[in-house]
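Worked example 3 (structure in, sequence out).
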């Protein structure tokens, strides 16, 4: 690789082409992006950890209560895995692990979720958090330089979008008083026609809700 690079530079000089401009080391910005992602995961873990015990969920009858508990606990484990991946990237790139939650999301998402009076409202807030995470990670796929971190962002984006879809579909069933349909495995014949469209309201994932890549950087 070094020989090829030397030959390329020699050829550029022979043709009178100026050498490429040196760019700043991108490691610092990659670290901040990984730490910000970890801070979002910290919010999700803390919120999911309390969601199953909230009155809005506990007041549901079975099997909806058990189904939602399984869904919430499963998502919490996913977020724990995501946190591990992002913090591993941050430390590998020379930074430190982020153990604090994203400050902006703590006030804009956590408080509304804890104050939700119905399970449907709670699921809608959780879905909003998942969409914010998915959009943030999607934006970073093209922004970060480290290939391994780029791959992590790409892979985890899809998982967060799946979480959002399930949460929105379940919320729509609760909103339409279809509590008995909130059960695994879901019986397609009992689902209203709106269940699929509620779970996938958009054909494309946008990034207008993406958090700034330095918002949750460790300080």
């Amino acid at each position: 690789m070094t020989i090829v690079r030397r030959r390329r530079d020699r050829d550029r000089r022979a043709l009178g082409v100026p050498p490429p401009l040196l760019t700043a080391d991108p490691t610092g910005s990659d670290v901040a992006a990984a730490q910000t992602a970890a801070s979002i995961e910290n919010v999700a873990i803390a919120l999911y950890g309390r969601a199953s015990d909230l009155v809005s969920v506990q007041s549901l009858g079975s099997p909806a209560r058990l189904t939602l508990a399984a869904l919430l606990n499963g998502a919490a484990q996913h977020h724990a895995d995501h946190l591990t991946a992002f913090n591993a990237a941050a430390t590998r790139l020379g930074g430190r692990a982020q153990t604090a939650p994203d400050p902006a999301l703590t006030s804009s998402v956590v408080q509304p979720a804890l104050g939700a009076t119905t399970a449907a409202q709670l699921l809608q807030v959780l879905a909003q958090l998942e969409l914010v995470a998915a959009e943030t990670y999607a934006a970073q796929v093209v922004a970060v330089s480290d290939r391994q971190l780029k791959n992590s962002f790409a892979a985890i984006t899809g998982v967060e979008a799946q979480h959002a879809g399930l949460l929105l579909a379940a919320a729509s069933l609760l909103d339409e008083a279809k509590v008995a349909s909130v059960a695994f495995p879901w019986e397609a014949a009992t689902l209203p026609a709106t269940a699929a469209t509620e779970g996938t309201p958009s054909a494309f994932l946008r990034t207008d809700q993406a958090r700034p890549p330095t918002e949750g950087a460790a300080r």
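Notes: The first helix runs from residue 2 to 14. DSSP finds eight helices and no strands in the chain.
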